[in-house]
Amino acid sequence: MLEMCRRDQWRVDDLDWTQRLRPMSADHEVAIVQYFTDMAGIELLAGALFEEQRRRVKDPTLRQIFATFVADEKRHSEAAARLARFYDVRKLREYRQSPALQRFFPHFLRAISLLSDDVANEYILGGELILDVALLRSIDDYVADEMSAQAMRLINRDESRHIAIDYHMAEYYQSSEYAAAVSARRTPVRQRAMAWWTMTNVLFHAKPFFQDVFFEPMERLDPQGARLKEAFRRMELVMAKRGRSGPPFARFMAAMKNLYNRPIAGRIFGGLASRIVGVDARFMERLASDAEWARAAGLTFDELAQEALAAKSSRAMPGARLKN
Q1: Fold of the 2-10+24-177+189-313 domain
Q2: What is the average pLDDT across 61-76?
């Protein structure tokens, strides 16, 4: 994997920026430029998550892999910012990154530096499934030209490596080795209290962040929600693999989803559970069948990763090639 990470590095200037744009409406142009503007910030957030993982892991090879991922995300951010300028042909308005993203970012960075190792991985795994299975593919379909396609091919190649390692780390945080390491730590009560207070701020800002940069754009890009549902179904299958075990934050998020889906408790507390997790109610519903849950429980994390990668590259999913 490390050799692949080093071999597949690329530069933003490797893209052919001389290509001509296809004709598009003003509304289409504004939407595209805003999507790429927000994508530049999202990629920096992902880079911060990988930097935190690089800082914490003990294995020297993993540390080097995560360093390449940080470089990848910085490059993706640069590419997205340049794509925003490329498509901003008529200068129809001034573009800024989502205010919800800007509010979320500092609370999130502080939280992941204080909380246990697995929190960063939970967010990066879920975030990259949403980004790769749903958002990036849908933006590319919406733009529908070779400039975007060229950039997205390279970005998605990088993201495939990221997802493979995300699942690998999810398996590690499931292991008895990690559980023993956590049990051996002695974290002062005051530090734990500060960490969870910071996490409360993250959860408070998470819903507007997710709504602004993921869910609202996808209402236009994928009106039926097929790709977003597929991303959340993939997260469910990781829950199925874990069963009742797993690191504390993963169990907490699974408990919120289970609460939402209980017939009586869900009606009373489902809205609160959805607000805490930060996602729309339709994605809190159970999306995988009982048969899929049972099958996922018997797969390895690597097999789950391979299936997720196949899902993100499939062109058969509803929503391909949206029209202007």
Answers
A1: Ribonucleotide Reductase, subunit A (1.10.620)
A2: 97
